[in-house]
Amino acid sequence: MSSRIEQIIEEIKDYIDSCKFQPLSTTKIVVNKEELEELLCELRMKTPDEIKRYQKIISNKDSIIQDAKNRAEAEIAEATAKAQQLVSENEVMRMAQEHAEELLERAQKQAQEIIDNATNDANSIRMSAISYTDEMLENLEKIMAHTMETAGAKYETFLNSIQSCYDIVNKNRQELSPQEAPSSYIPEEEDEEEEE
How far apart, in whole angstroms, are the C-alpha atoms of residue 112 and residue 72? Predict the structure, then answer.
């Protein structure tokens, strides 16, 4: 299920794709400023909420581990109390001590298992949150790259079209005045692009 941020990014992309070009331009579009600002404002408002949600998930790791430690300490305390009760009876001193050690060892193992499981769960939640955020950023990166690619291709097409028209005009002038030396024209913008 995609987040609201991803939906807004898709809406912005769809909106830009649906905008009409300015007259005599294949690169500049006319946008409804209010509509675009609404989408950007919602995106700005939703982003902190998403980040807070992931921070909350990550911070829950500490409470899960603390809860596990509390449960482990309770188990150890209960085992210790049982051990002391058994040891206090003289007839079963040796048996009580063995039993107490066994209980204590079992309680420590259970406590360690609880802590290990809680740590694994917390790390898994954290990695999922990081992975999800990375996927969102990757999608945004792809959309931006696609937008730049599309704009570049349209600009290149426009320049080729102008160059073709210029070549026809130049050829027609040469036909009208063949004695004049042909002039050559290289658009300044193309020079600038080659220098870059």
Answer: 8
CA distances, 173 to each of 154, 160, 164 (Å): 29, 20, 14
Beta bridge partners of 21: 29
- Predicted confidence at residue 1, as pLDDT, reads 42
Query: Cα–Cα–Cα angle for 69, 72, 74, nearest 5°?
Result: 110
Match 């073709």 to its residue by tokens.
164
Q: Write the DSSP assignment of 106-143 as a string of letters.
A: HHHHHHHHHHHHHHHHHHHHHHHHHHHHHHHHHHHHHH
pLDDT tens sequence across 79-105: 888 767 766 666 667 777 788 899 999
Q: What is the pLDDT of residues 27-64, one digit of tens each?
A: 888 888 888 888 888 888 877 766 777 677 777 777 77
pTM of the complete model: 0.34
The pair of three-digit structure tokens given for residue 177, joined into one six-digit string: 């005045």
Mean local confidence (pLDDT), 63-85: 83
Q: How many whole angstroms separate alpha carbon 30 and alpha carbon 32?
A: 7
DSSP state of 89: S
50-62 burial string, b = 16+ CB within 10 Å, else e? beeebeeebeebe
CA dihedral sign, ordered 69, 75, 78, 82: negative
